[in-house]
Amino acid sequence: MTPESKLEELLIDAEADDEAVQHSHPQVLRPWLLLLGLVLVALNLRPALSSLSPLLSEVSGSLGLSAARAGLLTTLPVLCLGLFAPLAPILARRFGAERVVLGILLTLAAGIVLRSAFGEAGLFAGSLVAGASIGIIGVLLPGIVKRDFASQAGAMTGVYTMALCLGAALAAGATVPLSHYFGDSWNIGLGFWMVPALVAALFWLPQVGQKHGAHQVAYRVKGLLRDPLAWQVTLYMGLQSSLAYIVFGWVPSMLISRGLSATEAGLALSGSIIVQLLSALTAPWLATRGKDQRLAIVVVMLLTLGGLFGCLYAPLDGLWGWAILLGLGQGGTFSLALTLIVLRSRDSHVAANLSGMAQGIGYTLASLGPLAVGVLHDWTGGWGATGWVFGVIGVGAIITGCGAGRALYVGVTSEKA
């Protein structure tokens, strides 16, 4: 079996699971409890990624990590987002989505403990486990939202996205103060984030007993991997995500090298992420008012690049302005990437498969950005050349985004398998 046919088979499996979701008729006894559980789970999908970067210099110094190895450390979780995503529908069909979410929350907590308490080997192994856990849960939650809140899917997706961004911001801003509070221990600062994962698991536990239908109608979508527009959507998703994970992984270290304390650098990252809430909600709405999304994509990518270059090169007196600019840009780039998946698809079956392709391949591609920044820093001994990485990725995202932003559909259709 070729890699393309294997990937298409996985995408078909994901669509079959999505159909199972849409044809179920659940009886949600306490929807407020499900809503609370979803929010708490979403809050845990970014702290493992954003909590490390403000402490990366301290962790590297403590364990003797080179910049290249630190870059690999920031790359592993992002790589796992793409590599482990195809496991989600397989596990959900075997055990049920609710049980899988509960089990993976516990796995996420274990990964966080592993990376904070067992030296360099535990740091890398725990990062891998945490990234894999986030990749699996991230695929399952939208389907649960679509199934149990079908009439409020848009609003619930907004709540889910806001919770995700809030979790990232909290971890970026609070990890360093927590480590200082507990005796300047980076281990405790990183390990603390197992607590919200366990709390989410506790509140999610009642969902395991809910009964959901199992009627499945599989649809096959052929030729997606040969469609140029599908690849443009995928590459835009991957390139904008690459910039996002460079920010998560390296921007605090860049700011610390420019004279900020770890706490100040973490707060700057946290503030930038919080600002993303505004553009994440408004950018798709504004982009769908025009004839296509090309202008919106160019605008948000230019905001992102402007914020990144400002954080890297501009005087620190204006840092918060650049951080806000960066947040506005990145909130828009991410939400538009998700919106393009829907707008470029003729029906929900194509959309589900395009989503699997864009996330599976896109996040794998995105993992190369943080690694490249770490290798370049190790090679040059500074951060000055990093601007070239920003520029190349940003220009690539604009080019592919302008292709993906045209008012067209991917040239494939769905049919019953």
TrEMBL record:
<dbReference type="InterPro" id="IPR036259">
    <property type="entry name" value="MFS_trans_sf"/>
</dbReference>
<feature type="transmembrane region" description="Helical">
    <location>
        <begin position="295"/>
        <end position="316"/>
    </location>
</feature>
<feature type="transmembrane region" description="Helical">
    <location>
        <begin position="350"/>
        <end position="376"/>
    </location>
</feature>
<feature type="transmembrane region" description="Helical">
    <location>
        <begin position="32"/>
        <end position="49"/>
    </location>
</feature>
<dbReference type="GO" id="GO:0022857">
    <property type="term" value="F:transmembrane transporter activity"/>
</dbReference>
<feature type="transmembrane region" description="Helical">
    <location>
        <begin position="322"/>
        <end position="343"/>
    </location>
</feature>
<feature type="transmembrane region" description="Helical">
    <location>
        <begin position="69"/>
        <end position="88"/>
    </location>
</feature>
<feature type="transmembrane region" description="Helical">
    <location>
        <begin position="124"/>
        <end position="145"/>
    </location>
</feature>
<feature type="transmembrane region" description="Helical">
    <location>
        <begin position="157"/>
        <end position="178"/>
    </location>
</feature>
<dbReference type="GO" id="GO:0016020">
    <property type="term" value="C:membrane"/>
</dbReference>
<keyword id="KW-0472">Membrane</keyword>
<dbReference type="InterPro" id="IPR052524">
    <property type="entry name" value="MFS_Cyanate_Porter"/>
</dbReference>
<feature type="transmembrane region" description="Helical">
    <location>
        <begin position="268"/>
        <end position="288"/>
    </location>
</feature>
<dbReference type="InterPro" id="IPR004747">
    <property type="entry name" value="CynX-like"/>
</dbReference>
<feature type="transmembrane region" description="Helical">
    <location>
        <begin position="388"/>
        <end position="409"/>
    </location>
</feature>
<dbReference type="InterPro" id="IPR011701">
    <property type="entry name" value="MFS"/>
</dbReference>
<protein>
    <submittedName>
        <fullName>Cyanate transporter</fullName>
    </submittedName>
</protein>
<feature type="transmembrane region" description="Helical">
    <location>
        <begin position="229"/>
        <end position="248"/>
    </location>
</feature>
<feature type="transmembrane region" description="Helical">
    <location>
        <begin position="190"/>
        <end position="208"/>
    </location>
</feature>
<keyword id="KW-0812">Transmembrane</keyword>
<dbReference type="Pfam" id="PF07690">
    <property type="entry name" value="MFS_1"/>
</dbReference>
<feature type="transmembrane region" description="Helical">
    <location>
        <begin position="100"/>
        <end position="118"/>
    </location>
</feature>
<keyword id="KW-1133">Transmembrane helix</keyword>
